[in-house]
């Protein structure tokens, strides 16, 4: 029975991982090796939610049998110790943890880095991509291996360790980096996750942020279009320089195949032999073509992603404006389903989200306190440890542990999926995440799996340092951090206090304010540049609404070519000037008035809505102020951090 429950839990976790992967990645466009590696790594990272609680309940049951049923008949033992429904023999769990840990180590230190370099390489052949990946990783891991070798020699010489202790040393060294990252991720997530649910409960707050996102994505879309035009011209120039008989021609054809914006008639009208006649030397080399090939791939990917996210964000912004408008109108419908849906969306859902936010805030406070005091053995001050020890039923123990470790995973993993580092790492929705970002997220998650599990067991005092009589299958494999004195006696005991400090910094939005002060595009409600972005977003949504009502707006999510986008943008700019100088429709006027009332209600920092008949500030003036403050900004950095 326990094995069947265990397999069902694994299947449920894998289904959850597949759904999450489907939201971010497109299987039809990703390399099969990337898809398999990311799915396996994510599965190992999320499976701890169900396996660690099962391991805890099994360990408590085994201890009960050993302590209370040693001299009792087997039939009477079941009356004293209740066997968990998900009970799995310890040897099977040890095999499972060995597979998870060593597979994760192989993925995070070998396979994922090589795949990241492979997919980012601009070489034209598979062998060339492999060579580039091996060269890039050899430099990094050669340095790390040298440092680890020196540490290993020092520890072995000073403590005369055996093979088992050396294995624990390797595990410890691997988990140290994960513990450092876990401090920042959980410190941020313990505050930001409850705040995110609270902000989502307010349609006005959502609308303000969505307008900000619309304005920001519009700038990114224009920049992506400019870069695309530039790289297309560069490819067109290279295409004219290389004759058909040249040895580099096949590589140029590969680049052209990756450049759909090069029109076929442009290529058909070029006489390569006449153009390059009499030229014995060509300034283009294979290395330069590799660089151009890399730019072409990244530029087209970025352009397509910006276009899809722009369409998606505009649609969401228009829908939010409609919902905010409906809040101030009396809704009547003969359909019971329509009335129920209206009540749930307008009244019940915001209330439920705020209740969830309050519950999450309480759990965050409990976990932060437990993190700060779990190193105190007597008296037990960790609230999580007291809660687990007070529960006698194995089923309730599993439920409590699942809730605690699930919330810890949610807070830690939330930051990974929300973090953005320019366009190098961006977990974009709508299946627009590129290969490198997926692989990087898998690398980080795989390095957090073991540290997060060890941290949870420490918080509930099921680590050997707190109770040597209780050894879970996980700790039998991972051991403890007492091999290295610095980690075992200092860092691993006092580092959780930093989680509280990072949580306080997140509570007061110090990181967001610092990024905004440095000129990055981050949402700060009382910042002047943020208000300008929100104002610009209102204009853009108003223009898109009118264009779509006239049937001129784009409703599909297919990307435009660079030239088509430029022409369309020029057409819209001319149309927008006409729209701003004409009287608005009565529906737009009513919507603007209701949105103004919603903003002045106090849900968030009020921002004046653009009066389409007599705008108080022009778009060019605001854009000039934004560019003056932005300087050399490229795109958002740590959007949510």
Write up what this structure looks like.
The structure is a single chain. With 641 residues, the chain is mostly helical. It is 73% helix and 1% strand. The protein is built from 24 helices and two strands. It has a two-stranded antiparallel ribbon with strand order 1-2. Strand 1 (420-421) and strand 2 (425-426) form a beta hairpin. It is globular. Residues 274-280, 553-586 and 601-641 have low confidence and may be disordered.
How does the SSE layout of this entry go?
Elements: H1 2-24, H2 32-46, H3 48-68, H4 74-80, H5 90-120, H6 126-159, H7 163-200, H8 203-241, H9 249-257, H10 264-268, H11 272-275, H12 286-326, H13 336-373, H14 383-390, H15 394-418, E1 420-421, E2 425-426, H16 435-459, H17 473-478, H18 485-494, H19 496-507, H20 510-517, H21 528-549, H22 562-580, H23 586-599, H24 619-630
Antiparallel strand pairs: 1-2
Helix pairs in contact: 1-2, 2-5, 2-16, 3-15, 5-6, 5-16, 7-13, 7-15, 7-16, 7-19, 8-12, 8-21, 8-22, 9-12, 12-23, 13-19, 15-16, 21-24
Number of strands: 2
**What percent of the residues sit in helical stretches (DSSP H or I)?**
over 70%
Average pLDDT number: 77
Q: What order do the SSEs take from the amino end to the carboxyl end, as H and E?
A: HHHHHHHHHHHHHHHEEHHHHHHHHH
Assembly state of the chains shown: single chain
- Judging from the principal axes of the Cα atoms, what is the shape? globular
Strand content: under 5%
Could you name the ranges where pLDDT drops below 50 across 5 or more consecutive residues?
A: 274-280, 553-586, 601-641
Structural class: mainly alpha
Instruction: Enumerate how many helices there are, as a single number.
Output: 24
* Termini gap: 45 Å
User: Main beta sheet: strand number and arrangement?
Assistant: 2 strands, antiparallel
- Enumerate the strands of the largest sheet in spatial order, edge to edge or round the barrel: 1-2
Radius of gyration, Cα only, in angstroms? 29 Å
């Amino acid at each position: 029975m326990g094995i069947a429950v265990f397999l069902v839990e694994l299947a449920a976790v894998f289904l959850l991982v597949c759904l999450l992967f489907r939201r971010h990645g497109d299987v039809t466009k990703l390399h099969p090796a990337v898809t398999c590696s990311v799915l396996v790594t994510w599965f190992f990272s999320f499976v701890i939610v169900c396996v660690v609680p099962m391991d805890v309940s099994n360990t408590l049951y085994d201890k009960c049998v050993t302590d209370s049923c040693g001299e009792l008949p087997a039939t009477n033992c079941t009356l004293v110790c209740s066997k968990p429904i998900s009970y799995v023999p310890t040897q099977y769990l040890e095999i499972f943890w060995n597979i998870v840990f060593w597979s994760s180590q192989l993925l995070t230190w070998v396979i994922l880095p090589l795949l990241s370099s492979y997919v980012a390489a601009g070489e034209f052949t598979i062998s060339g991509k492999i060579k580039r990946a091996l060269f890039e990783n050899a430099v990094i891991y050669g340095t790390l291996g040298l440092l680890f070798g020196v540490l290993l020699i020092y520890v072995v010489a000073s403590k005369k360790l055996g093979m088992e202790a050396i294995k624990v040393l390797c595990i410890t060294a691997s988990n140290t980096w994960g513990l450092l990252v876990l401090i920042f991720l959980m410190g941020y997530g313990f505050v930001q996750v409850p705040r995110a649910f609270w902000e989502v409960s307010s349609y006005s707050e959502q609308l303000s942020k969505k307008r900000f996102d619309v304005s920001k994505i519009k700038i990114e879309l224009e920049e992506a279009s400019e870069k695309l035009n530039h790289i297309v011209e560069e490819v067109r120039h290279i295409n004219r320089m290389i004759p058909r008989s040249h040895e580099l021609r096949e590589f140029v054809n590969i680049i052209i195949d990756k450049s759909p914006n090069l029109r076929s008639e442009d290529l058909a009208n070029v006489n390569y032999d006449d153009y390059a006649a009499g030229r014995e030397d060509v300034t283009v080399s294979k290395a330069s073509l590799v660089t151009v090939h890399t730019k072409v791939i990244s530029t087209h990917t970025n352009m397509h992603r910006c276009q899809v996210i722009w369409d998606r964000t505009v649609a969401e912004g228009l829908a939010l404006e409609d919902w905010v408008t409906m809040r101030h109108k009396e809704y009547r419908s003969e359909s019971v389903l329509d009335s129920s849906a209206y009540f749930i969306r307008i009244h019940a859902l915001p209330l439920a989200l705020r209740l969830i936010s309050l519950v999450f805030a309480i759990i965050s406070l409990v976990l932060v306190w437990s993190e700060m005091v779990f190193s105190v053995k007597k008296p037990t001050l960790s609230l999580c440890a007291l809660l687990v020890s007070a529960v006698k039923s194995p089923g309730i123990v599993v439920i409590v542990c699942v809730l605690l470790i699930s919330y810890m995973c949610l807070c830690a993993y939330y930051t990974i999926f929300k973090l953005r580092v320019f366009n190098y790492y961006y977990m974009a929705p709508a299946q627009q995440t590129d290969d490198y970002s997926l692989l990087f997220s898998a690398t980080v998650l795989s390095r957090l799996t073991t540290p997060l599990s060890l941290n949870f067991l420490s918080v509930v005092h099921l680590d050997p340092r707190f109770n040597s009589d209780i050894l879970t299958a996980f700790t039998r494999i991972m051991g403890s951090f007492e091999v290295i004195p610095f980690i075992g006696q200092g860092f691993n005991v006092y580092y959780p206090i930093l989680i509280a400090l990072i949580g306080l910094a997140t509570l007061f939005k110090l990181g967001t304010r610092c990024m905004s002060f440095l000129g990055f595009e981050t949402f700060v409600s009382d910042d002047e540049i943020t208000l300008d972005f929100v104002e610009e977003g209102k204009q853009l949504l108003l223009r898109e609404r009118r264009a779509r009502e006239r049937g001129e707006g784009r409703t599909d999510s297919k990307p435009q070519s660079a030239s088509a986008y430029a022409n369309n943008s020029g057409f819209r700019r001319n149309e927008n000037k006409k729209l701003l100088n004409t009287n608005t429709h009565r529906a737009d006027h009513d919507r603007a008035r209701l949105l103004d009332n919603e903003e002045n209600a106090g849900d968030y920092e009020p921002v004046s809505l653009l009066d389409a008949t007599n705008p108080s500030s022009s778009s060019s003036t605001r854009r000039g102020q934004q560019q003056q403050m932005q300087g050399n900004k490229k795109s958002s950095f740590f959007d949510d951090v």
